[in-house]
Write a structure and sequence with these properties.
Elements: E1 35-37, E2 40-48, E3 55-66, E4 76-84, E5 95-98, H1 106-109, E6 126-129, H2 159-173, H3 184-198, E7 203-208, H4 210-221, E8 226-232, H5 245-262, H6 264-270, H7 273-286, E9 292-295, E10 302-305, H8 309-319, H9 323-326, H10 329-337, H11 342-358, H12 361-371, H13 390-399, E11 421-426, H14 434-442, E12 447-452, H15 465-475
Parallel strand pairs: 5-6, 5-7, 7-8, 8-11, 11-12
Antiparallel strand pairs: 1-2, 2-3, 3-4, 4-6, 9-10
Helix pairs in contact: 2-13, 3-4, 7-10, 8-11
């Protein structure tokens, strides 16, 4: 069976950024090619996500912090930090981009959204802090028996296998890290320690997906250090990660399938995608399917695999994130229903390979097990959905053997007050639907929630959103934004065949 995978004293500004606010007359000793931002030394580097072609030139540095801040004798760990400098004069409040997951590294995730910050970068530095447990910050990588970074060694339906994998991973990682101290609470303290080391008084937070949880928690704990907040694909503090995922995905899929039924070409050529999904799911769950040859989407090599429900599940989960890929689902289901599984296998394999290299599963477990596992409950109402309670049971099994830290007593309380907050959601987001953004905005006095028509998860770089982002950070006034330009965004039509939609 296939598995389902589930961001001190300021120096003088010698070689440093204009706009950093000095807090003391300290000087950083630099080697040739280095630059200083506050008390942190940086040198040229290139940022790139594993398996992704996009790279961004940057400056990279490090900062040492305590693993357990309550114990002065605890081990020290190193945080990996990226800096995208402004070419000219910079405003004094940089932007901290907070990555998703949980389990993504900020420096690896940033190249995929670099274009969204094109206008912001004219006047503000971008700071990227790899969350502890990811990237260059004491990475917590779980590997399978063949040494590959993987989310589970077997199938997520096999809870014993998932539990055993987590136990072995915890035992291995626990030799060099105390896994109780790698969750959101520690991450926001790290962010503030980086802020102080840079020598700046206030920062702007841009959180994406799980990063929106980090941004809200930081703004609650450090309101005096927060100038503005942008939340893209919003996770409310009240949300138990994983609890709603099956229901949200099913709602998004039903929406896409209904659009196929309403489209003449898709309806005529594909039929009813929901009925096809039920048919394919049953066939794959029953098994007894002969191995199928398919071409690896990344290497071009011919491979062979037995189609299983896990292939379909990962495809449905991840392709629903983006309208470009979601539109292909009816066609892929039609192919599988006819016994043609090659396309499904190729796409599922490509997704799995990309996810397992970009998500640091150890950090993901430290976050989920500390902050959410005790509130996760299987919901019988979700048994009829395509994912059912599989993700909940999978998380519960792994968290049963994973060390847990302490969740802040006010963790679930909403962010409140008059802090300027801009919220962005995609209309068809299968993970963080627009109602989540509405919930967060309701408790804020100066918030504005914009829903991008026809879009999915992570929308910061779409349409005119980059210009709105820059305008908001410039003025910190969400009410002043003219967001009419977002109305130009439209849903893509569903595929009606191998070459796309009908003309």
């Amino acid at each position: 069976m296939r598995s389902i995978p589930i961001v001190l004293l300021a120096a003088s500004l010698l070689s440093g950024p204009a706009g950093a606010t000095p807090v003391a007359a300290a000087r950083v000793s630099l080697e040739p090619g280095q630059r200083a931002y506050g008390q942190i030394r940086f040198e040229p580097c290139s940022l790139q996500a594993p398996g992704m072609p996009v790279a961004v030139e940057a400056q990279c540095g490090t900062l040492e912090v305590a693993e357990n801040r309550e114990d002065p004798e605890s081990r020290r760990i190193t945080l990996g930090i990226g800096w995208i400098p402004v070419d000219g004069i910079a405003d004094p409040d940089p932007v901290f981009m907070l990555a998703g997951g949980p389990g993504q590294a900020a420096k690896q995730a940033y190249p995929m959204v670099h274009a969204a910050f094109r206008d912001v970068r004219r006047s503000r530095h971008i700071i990227l802090v790899d969350a502890r447990g990811t990237g260059d910050s004491q990475p917590l990588v779980c590997r399978d028996s063949e040494g590959r970074a993987n989310l589970t060694e077997g199938t997520s339906e096999d809870l014993d296998t998932a539990r055993d994998f987590a136990r072995r991973c915890a035992e291995t990682l626990g030799r060099e890290a105390d896994l109780r101290f790698y969750s959101t609470g520690e991450h926001i303290d790290d962010l503030d320690e980086v802020r102080r080391a840079l020598g700046v008084a206030r920062i702007n937070l841009v959180g994406i997906s799980y990063g929106t949880r980090v941004a809200q928690q930081y703004a609650k704990r450090y309101p005096e250090a927060t100038r503005s907040v942008v939340l893209d694909s919003v996770v409310p503090n009240s949300l138990v990660l994983g609890a709603d995922h099956a229901a949200n995905l099913q709602q998004a899929l039903d929406t896409h399938f209904e659009r196929c039924r309403e489209d003449a070409g898709c309806s005529a050529n594909i039929g009813n995608p929901r009925e096809l999904l039920d048919q394919v799911s049953q066939t794959l769950r029953e098994g007894d399917i002969a191995p199928v040859s398919y071409r690896d989407a990344r290497s071009g090599e011919w491979k062979e695999a037995t189609p299983e429900f896990g292939h379909l599940a990962i495809l449905l989960r991840m392709y629903a994130y983006s309208p470009e890929t979601a539109t292909t689902l009816p066609y892929l289901l039609e192919q599988a229903a006819g016994g043609r599984y090659a396309a499904m296998l190729a796409q599922a394999e490509a997704i799995t390979g990309s996810l397992t290299e970009q998500i640091y599963h150890g950090m993901q477990l430290s976050v989920s097990c500390t902050e959410d596992a005790d509130e996760l409950r299987a919901d019988p109402a979700q048994d009829a959905s395509v994912l059912g309670n599989q993700l909940v049971e999978f998380t519960q099994a792994q968290c049963a053997v994973w060390p847990r830290g302490s969740r802040d007593p006010v963790f679930r309380e909403p962010l409140t007050g008059d802090l300027p907050v801009l919220l962005l959601s995609g209309e068809f987001d299968p993970v963080t639907p627009p109602r989540y953004g509405d919930e967060v905005a309701e408790s804020l006095d100066r918030a504005r929630h914009l829903v991008l028509p026809g879009q999915g998860h992570s929308v910061l770089g779409l349409g005119c959103a980059p210009k709105l982002l820059a305008q908001f950070i410039e003025k910190a006034d969400p009410a002043a934004l003219d967001a009419a330009c977002l109305e130009r965004l439209k849903p893509l039509p569903p595929f009606a065949g191998p070459y796309g939609w009908e003309p």
